[in-house]
Amino acid sequence: MIELVDATKSYLQGRRVVEAVRGVSLRVAGGEFVAIMGPSGSGKSTLMHLMGALDIPSTGRAVFLGRDLQSLSDSQRSQFRRTRIGFVFQQFNLLPTLTAAENVALPLMLDGIARRAALAKANDRLKQVALDHRAGHFPDEMSGGEMQRVAVARALIADPDAVLCDEPTGNLDTITSREILTLLAALPEPDRRAVVMVTHDPAAAAFGTRLVKVRDGRVESDDPVRK
Ligand code: ADP
Ligand code: ADP
């Protein structure tokens, strides 16, 4: 479903060129829950951004469901992302002035779907993450775990083919982390949906079905997780 072919991503830092990702080839199939681990600065987030069409490779290719992402314009790519891919970040990234349901519904409303219909769907998604009783609450009235549930519900709003998570438990305690990871682990569907998660935490990675270790912008190892 997601394929990187000899993908490289370089950034200019002042006059220095930093190769964050160096010639990575990687395929992720529906049904997989791929954990990506590696030291700080090893290129994990960049790799996730390439997989999620947040960014395009400097050289090589990123292919999502057979679509070559670099052949899309920025606005096509952003439309593609909104409809096909859900994102979960460490900082939750909820808008403080919107309720839980409004935060979840926002991607649909941005896509032109009427508020009522979008909110109805948002409430279904909040039910899916066992948070429907908080639909009318604002982020500052919720715990970290609840905010991350809202973020997961938002990531699922368009029924995406992939859910990409960047340190989703980085701001959560152990018990809450396990709840979020259990939720994420239930999302992959064979031949349909994949989950990719960047994490520092080996206990979080253990929830995955596959562990990719990254070092200096390259894939160091890529193995199934033994349960
Ligand atoms: P990780 O997620 O493993 O910490 P990143 O992918 O964030 O690694 O970063 C890999 C390298 O690329 C680092 O050296 C980082 O400084 C650099 N980098 C990442 N994003 C940018 C950017 N937008 N501009 C410049 N350099 C960047
Ligand atoms: P970090 O990896 O430094 O903790 P984030 O994971 O919050 O930062 O964001 C990484 C990148 O993803 C940023 O370049 C940001 O612009 C982008 N981003 C953050 N949130 C979203 C979002 N909800 N949708 C699309 N892109 C986002």
From TrEMBL:
Q: A GO CC term?
A: membrane protein complex
Which InterPro entries does this UniProt record tie to the protein? AAA+_ATPase, ABC_transporter-like_ATP-bd, ABC_transporter-like_CS, ABC_transpr_LolD-like, MacB-like_ATP-bd, P-loop_NTPase
Q: Give the signal peptide range.
A: none
Q: Which Gene3D superfamilies match?
A: P-loop containing nucleotide triphosphate hydrolases (3.40.50.300)
- The residues covered by the ABC transporter domain are 2-227
- Superkingdom per UniProt: Bacteria
Task: List, alphabetically, the SMART domains matched.
Answer: AAA
Q: Name any one GO molecular function.
A: ATP binding
Q: Which UniProt keywords apply?
A: ATP-binding, Nucleotide-binding, Transport
Is Amino-acid biosynthesis set as a keyword in this record? no
Family classification: Belongs to the ABC transporter superfamily. Macrolide exporter (TC 3.A.1.122) family.
Q: What is this protein called?
A: ABC transporter ATP-binding protein
